UniProtKB/TrEMBL annotation:
Residues 241-613 form the FAD-binding domain. The lineage of its organism: Eukaryota, Fungi, Dikarya, Basidiomycota, Agaricomycotina. One of its GO terms (molecular function) is FAD binding. Residues 646-853 form the Phenol hydroxylase-like C-terminal dimerisation domain. This is FAD binding domain-containing protein. Residues 66-89 are annotated as: Disordered.
Length: 864
């Protein structure tokens, strides 16, 4: 019998582990595999065999390839016993090509093993099966369903993370052929469906492979409604802290952050899968830094492309097309000081993927095919209604907070009383086209603006997979020409692009984004999703929050504008970045009433700034004046990069109390890069990123010598009480560990408090003090004692204290309060005397007392 141990589990490509038999019923979940590996305990799915099928033109199905290394007759091969290396190289995959759509079926044959008993999954019995287990080995609240399958009917793949294919007859036909041609005996009639930690598993066994017993020889079909209902039933079981509507960039960002902070969140999306083509594609420097802070940037860097410069081209009646300018997109650190001074390009689905993977690593998954319809607020609770579109039923969820990340046509916004979009819509239509271009034009790998006085403007953006995105302005070229969406079809937009680029030739090698499966099967040279049209609407919602302060909107639900400056996806994610930590504190009862309204105040300001910028930017684009356009970019570089998204004074961003602070640390602004050496292991690190983001505040103290610290007063302080309340809350509901956390151990940054990480940055040489010389609270924080001794590694070649605080003199302490989202909250300079120490404590207490609240009744003793 098949026994897959941990080693095999690790060795088999994770994406292949959880793919289930029929086309995309369950999307491969690498996160779960990762959990299983790192816990060292779970092993519940393995893969036996694979092959590749194609549907011919007549709809016939034939096997076109049978991978090597597949399992035969249910016997464990030598190679697999040796650790499954062969399976790593020969990834078991079945491809099914249906009409013009290619569906990859992974893991044709799944063996379900209970990790505890290692018993084979009993099939063909009503409600049978071992208990579903979580990755930590505990038994999950189990639901199991025996899906009785109709003799006739379609296979519709559908699941919380899966895809839905309408070509169900083809799938069914393919499955039948798999049974016959492969001699597998049967795909049995009954499928076991269980909810595993919120993930729906549909485990199908090719039973003859295991013990030669044929169960049934019928066609496998699976009622989408039943599968879907099972998933939704599990979701609805308990009340939620937060329900997020929409899993685009804004929703995925919110879901990922709430999940990592330990908030009980449900994310619903009406789509059956993430974005696969088109839409947004630009990640700005500030967002790159945020992704670094979340530790999700690496996969994006591997796939995306970077651009550092901008080119300007122009043609008019008297001069043919020529380059008129060449600029660095993000110039010196004096203009914009960032670690990643470029824009990263990759389609929206890649970004969603990175965030959804992170969400899944923290055990939260999107419920798909869930169309939000309305909400009703009652005291302290919100009733959310949504349609399970596969089952055609209406379902309900109870939640404390609801966030609409449901895009420009947001239903949540429409349900919020007295809420509307304010602004205007422009007449000009733009075409967007993604594809690989064959041309002699020399500047396709920079951000390039090509302006033709007669035919309009094109913005070219280099993209992954050798593609280029073209944004093509569709202007009228003569009195009789009226451009409407009906006129602007694919051929029209391509011809207009050729007119603007003339005399350079444009030929598209392929149009649309080829999926990996497309590439494997080749000959895919067209797609219906290759281009889009849009009309600019520059609008901002009049409110981002309802009167109860329990319903919010983020992203496109609150603002729409042109996509030319690459802002939409970035600003949308930063809305959610801003809201996530505030909601976490609210859910935990640690937020004073003043905290949540700062979301609306801060992010509506940014949305309004964005609309003003976008207005000017669009004008400069259409004006056809290359100089004016270059100037517009230069003037707005900080804003475009994201680092210029400054917040106004409010309870979180306190005006400077001391005029002696002359550095970069300004309340309401983001931290700039600061390079220091970590005392404990002597690693040079980026101070603004070193401490993992887990919803806590950072209190940085700069000093020339650590002797400047007097022992600080302890309880009964407000910080002590609120910190105790936070400890109690995180003890009751901890932040979930991701597989990576096993290695990085973020808890070492919480030695003193769950709510505050204290950091000391000193210019004192390492060999002149020990950590034990510091007051107890700081001595506990050994991972956040830093030496300010690597100015040569800084972006501006400055010491961190000089750069951030304008220097620190002997006997002084400069305190910088940094919010969980990386914005500076308040800054002050103090002398190291006992008197000033008392004032400093009072100042800290007033600052945090403005937006936090402590549970006075807590019995847990303060760590502070
Ligand atoms: C057609 C189109 C083309 C675009 N092209 C570009 C471009 O070329 N360049 C660019 O920079 N930006 C482009 N954008 C804008 C960019 O995609 C957005 O700025 C960005 O995606 C905003 O993210 P979001 O999460 O706020 O919204 P979205 O990405 O729109 O995500 C909203 C999510 O909510 C879900 N949803 C909606 N209604 C419901 C409901 N009732 N119930 C459940 N789920 C729901 C949707 O399925 C979707 O997943 C485009 C947008 C659209 C709509």
């Amino acid at each position: 019998m098949l026994q897959l141990g941990l080693r095999t589990f690790v060795a088999v490509p994770s994406a292949a582990l959880l793919g289930i038999v029929t086309a995309g019923i369950v999307k491969p979940r690498s996160d779960l595999a990762g959990h299983a590996c790192s816990s060292g305990r779970s092993c519940f799915l393995g893969i036996a065999s694979c092959c590749r099928f194609e549907c011919g033109d007549e709809g016939d199905v034939r096997r076109v390839r049978r991978d090597q290394g597949e399992r035969e007759g249910g016997h464990e091969s030598e190679r697999e016993r040796a650790g499954g290396k062969e399976m790593t190289e020969k990834r078991p995959t079945t491809y099914l090509r249906m009409r013009r759509r290619v569906v990859r079926i992974e893991a044709c044959c799944i063996h379900y093993l209970s990790h505890a008993s290692k018993t084979k999954f009993p099939t063909g019995r009503e409600g049978g099966g071992p208990p579903a287990r979580r990755v930590d080995g505990t038994v999950a609240a189990q639901r199991s369903y025996q899906v009785q399958l109709p003799e006739e009917g379609g296979v519709e793949a559908d699941e919380a993370q899966g895809s839905k294919y309408s070509d169900d007859e083809d799938v069914a036909r393919c499955l039948r052929s798999m049974v016959r041609e492969e001699g597998w005996g049967a795909l049995y009639r009954g499928w076991m469906v269980c909810l595993f930690d919120g993930i729906l598993l549909v485990a199908g066994l090719v039973y003859t492979m295991l013990d030669k017993s044929v169960v049934h020889r019928d066609t496998i079909t699976c009622s989408a409604a039943m599968v879907s209902s099972a998933a939704h039933a599990g979701k609805a079981a308990s009340a939620k802290d937060v329900v997020v509507i929409g899993a685009g960039p804004a929703g995925a960002m919110l879901g990922a952050n709430l999940a990592r902070l330990g908030v009980n969140v449900d994310v619903l999306d009406e789509r059956s899968d993430k974005t696969s083509t088109g839409r947004a594609d630009g990640i700005q420097p500030k967002t790159l830094e945020t992704f670094k802070q979340m530790r999700v940037l690496e996969p994006l860097l591997q796939k995306g492309v970077k651009f550092y410069d901008m080119m300007f081209w122009h043609s008019d009646a008297s001069t043919s097309l020529r380059r008129t300018g060449r600029e660095t997109h993000y110039p010196s650190p004096d203009v914009i000081d960032v670690l990643e001074p470029y824009m990263l390009l990759g389609h929206q689905g890649m970004v969603e993927d990175a965030l959804l993977d992170d969400m899944a690593a923290h055990r939260t998954h999107v419920t798909r095919n869930a169309h939000f319809t309305e909400f009703n607020s009652r005291s302290g609770s919100i009733d959310v209604s949504y349609e399970d579109s596969a089952a055609g039923s209406t379902l309900h969820l109870q939640t404390a907070y609801l966030v609409g990340c449901d895009g420009a046509h947001s239903n949540v916004r429409k349900c919020m009383p007295n809420t509307e979009m304010v602004g205007e819509s422009k007449d000009i239509i733009w075409g967007v086209l993604d594809g690989e271009i064959d041309t002699e034009f020399p500047d396709l790998w920079s951000k390039t603006i090509v302006q033709s006085k007669k035919y309009g403007t094109i913005l070219c953006i280099p993209r992954e997979r050798n593609m280029t995105r073209l944004y093509i302005e569709l202007i009228s070229t003569g009195e009789n020409e009226k451009i409407t969406k009906a006129v602007a079809n694919q051929q029209f937009v391509m011809q207009r692009a050729r007119d603007i680029f003339a005399p350079y030739k444009l030929n598209w090698t392929f149009i649309g984004e080829p999926s990996p499966t497309d590439l494997i099967l080749a000959n895919i040279n067209s797609s219906e999703e290759w281009f889009g049209l849009y009309q600019i609407g520059q609008r901002v919602a009049n409110r981002f929050m309802d009167d109860s302060k329990r319903v919010f909107i983020t992203g496109d639900a609150g603002h729409t504008h042109s996509p030319k400056a690459g802002q939409g996806m970035n600003v949308s994610m930063h809305d959610s970045w801003n809201l996530a930590w505030k909601l976490n504190l609210a859910v935990r009862g640690l937020a004073a009433p003043a905290l949540l309204p700062t979301y609306e105040a801060e992010r509506r300001k940014i949305a309004t700034d964005l609309i003003h910028f976008d207005h000017e930017h669009a004008e400069a684009f259409s004006a056809g004046d290359p100089k004016k356009l270059a100037e517009n970019f230069a003037t707005n570089t900080r804003f475009i990069s994201g680092v210029g998204a400054d917040y106004s004074d409010n309870v979180l961003n306190q005006p400077l109390s001391s005029p002696a602070i002359t550095g970069d640390c300004r309340p309401g602004k983001l931290l700039t890069p600061g390079k220091v050496t970590r005392y404990v292991d002597h690693n040079p690190v980026d101070l603004q990123l070193d401490i993992p983001h887990l919803g806590q505040f950072r209190i940085f103290m700069f000093c020339a010598t650590v002797q400047a610290f007097e022992p600080s007063p302890t309880s009964p302080s407000f910080l002590g009480r609120v910190s105790a309340a936070a400890s109690a809350s995180y003890k009751a509901r901890p932040r979930p560990m991701s597989p990576q956390d096993e290695f990085s151990r973020p808890e070492r940054y919480f030695a003193a408090s769950d709510l505050f990480t204290f950091g000391v940055i000193t210019t004192q040489p390492k060999d002149s003090f020990e950590i034990a010389d510091l007051p107890p609270l700081l001595a506990k924080s050994r991972w956040t004692i830093y030496l300010d001794n690597v100015p040569d590694m800084d972006t501006k070649k400055m010491r961190c204290a000089d750069k951030w605080a304008g220097g620190v003199r002997e006997g002084e302490v400069v305190v910088v309060n940094v919010r969980p989202d990386g914005y500076v909250g308040s800054v002050a300079r103090w002398k190291g005397t006992a008197d000033d120490g008392r004032h400093a404590v009072g100042w800290l207490e007033r600052y945090y007392g403005g937006f936090l609240q402590a549970d006075a009744g807590t019995k847990i003793s303060a760590k502070l």
